[in-house]
Amino acid sequence: MEHLPKCHANYTPLSPLDFLLRAANVYSGRTSVVYKHLRFTWEQTYLRCRRLASALRSLTIIKNDVVSVLAPNIPALYEMHFGVPMAGAVLNTINTRLDAGNIANILKHSGAKVFFVDYEYVGRAREALKMMIASNKTHSTAVLPLVVVIDELDAPTGVRLGELEYESLLAAADPEAEIHQVEDEWDPIALNYTSGTTSAPKGVVYSHRGAYLSTLSLLLQWEVCSEPVYLWSLPMFHCNGWTFTWGMAARGGANVCIRTPTAAELYKAITEHGVTHMCCAPVVFTILLEADHGRLPHKVNVLTGGAPPPPSVLQSVENLGFHVTHAYGMTEATGPALVCEWRKEWDRLPPAHRSKLKARQGISVLTLADADVRNKNTRERVPRDGVSVGEIVLRGSSIMKGYFKNVKDTAEAFKDGWLWTGDVGVVHPDGYIEIKDRSKDVIISGGENISSVEVESVLYKHPAVAEVAVVAMPHVLWGETPCAFVVLKKGEDGEGVGEIREEEMIRFCKMNFAGFMVPKKVVFMEELPKTATGKVMKAQLREAARRLKPAPMSNGNNRQPVTQEHVLAVSRL
User: How confident is the model at residue 308, as a pLDDT?
Assistant: First the structure.
């Protein structure tokens, strides 16, 4: 077969940029982006992205330069997912909840040449740039990026950080100028920094090939129809919106952008625009349930991930009209890596049983060559019995290229031909994987391994519990014991439901599982500390738990309200 070589007719590099060109050609008149009262078509979005690419080239951006952006889910951020790589550059979307120090670290580490900043974040961006200047005077030679402010589209504020502004930049650019052509699908398209970035950040590099394949895989397994109306309740900065930034172009869908995913904004968008699909972390379910909106006028498909949702919460949110599909992923896997693909025979099961099945993380996405659970010491796969635990491992074309400027951690992540995720799980007899915990979150009490997720699932069944996180607390006898941080549901007056005591929560746990799994301490909070993607910051809770003592069982009121600010303060000690 050697006489059948590759040529331009039968081989082109895979890139999600092709989705936009196709959308402009075949869906030109369809709505592409909705923001407040503004609407764009796919033809308009394509031209705006070409203008952005042209503008970046005029700012001397060349292949593989990094372009950073700090912005909420707005049209400009969506356009950058195409316009930046169309200029040959690499897109770096920054978590909007990071402080100035972390933003400065990312800008320095990435070597960003241009920094786009939404007007709401100009103050934080200014502080980050000041930190970079101060650092340059002492021990760094990092060059400051060129700053471009993104002003409000429908009502410009005039806020600036320098002279450049996004819309003005686009207006002056030539949409017919030549754009970068992808010649190698292994070229980088995006640089995403992992959650909890510190002074030694991990920058995850995505390839055009990985982004393209991940996008198609999720569209297929989530069964995204033609002309979806997609609500941006998930931050686009998180794994490039789980690749649905590119996916909506592939399906000719409408992107409904909202700046803040409050319950009011979410329900308003769903009703006004006929939303068919949305993604979110389980924390958004709590927001939706507490709003007491009532049943939706139509079904909304939800892809959720980021933390294992309790079956009871899944059942409650589905009663509102949301059809939930559970997924599991990580930044290093270009978003979702497992999807709980639904089986028709499960429809005949009781609701509680269905919710328990939905809470599993599922089977590998189509772009993975394999996903497994393996013993980290022996490297052998664990039995498919739903009980034997091991570490979840992945391999396939959708896995990251590696960590930017970090050979050591890249080699550590890629061992024996697998990406080792750090998540502990089991494989059920039907082949579906279920996470039991992060390896660092497993509680070892008296030699027994306790899954914090299992303890949390039981506590979620208590009628007064809105949110809960369980971490290890030091114990003089057992080494470690579970400590539960609980947020109570709010009553009509906005106060916690009743006078729930610590002893009551502990007794509730004793009625539901073995004694060694029962929390020895319950702390009541106003809210749990979370990342911008809805993940509970368990490292902060573990630090707080280190300074607590097991609860004495007494007849007194041991309820101890603790605010998120208190936990943050304790974590800095």
Answer: 66
Grouping H, G, I as helix, E, B as strand and the rest as coil, residue 561 is strand
DSSP 167-210: HHHHHHS-TTS-------TTSEEEEEEPTT--SS--EEEEEHHH
Q: What is the DSSP secondary-structure string of 207-243?
A: EHHHHHHHHHHHHHHTT--SS-EEE--S-TTSHHHHT
Q: Are the C-beta atoms of residues 185 and 209 closer than 8 Å to each other?
A: yes
Homologous superfamily of domain range 442-571: ANL, C-terminal domain (3.30.300.30)
> Which residue is associated with the tokens 């952008």?
257
DSSP per residue over 286-345, as a string?
HHHHHTT--S-SS-EEEEE-SS---HHHHHHHHHTTEEEEEEEEEGGGTEEEEE----GG
Is residue 220 within 8 A of residue 232, CB to CB? The reply is no
Confidence of residue 565 (pLDDT cuts 50, 70, 90): very low
Per-residue model confidence as pLDDT tens digits over 303-326: 998 766 778 888 889 999 999 999
Give the pair of three-digit tokens for residue 512.
């539901």
Q: What is the largest CA-CA distance in the chain?
A: 86
Write out the two tokens for 530.
């979370």
**Strand arrangement, sheet containing 229-231:** 38-41, 31-35, 254-257, 229-231, 277-280, 300-304, 322-330, 335-339, 363-364
- What distance lies between CA 222 and its chain's CA centroid? 17
pTM here is 0.82
Q: How far is CA 331 from the centre of its chain?
A: 8
**Residue 226: exposure state from Cβ atoms within 10 A (0-12, 13-18, ≥19):** exposed
HSE (side-chain half, CA atoms, 13 Å) at 276: 13
Half-sphere exposure of 191 (CA within 13 A, CB side): 25
Three-class SS of residue 67?
Answer: strand
Q: Per-residue pLDDT tens for 109-161?
A: 999 999 999 999 999 999 999 999 998 776 656 689 999 999 999 899 999 99
Judging by beta carbons within 10 Å of its beta carbon (0-12, 13-18, 19+), is residue 117 exposed, middle or buried? buried
* Tokens linked to 251: 């399906």
Paired strand residues for 405: none
How many helices (H) and strands (E) in the chain? 18, 28
Three-state DSSP at 279 gives strand
Question: Would you kindly state where each structural domain of the chain is located, as residue ranges?
Answer: 442-571
* Angle at which helices 351-358 and 311-319 cross, to 10°: 110
Tally Cβ neighbours within 10 Å of residue 161.
18
Each residue's pLDDT tens digit, 430-446:
999 998 877 677 787 76
Radius of gyration of the chain (CA): 24
The pair of three-digit structure tokens given for residue 324, joined into one six-digit string: 């939930």
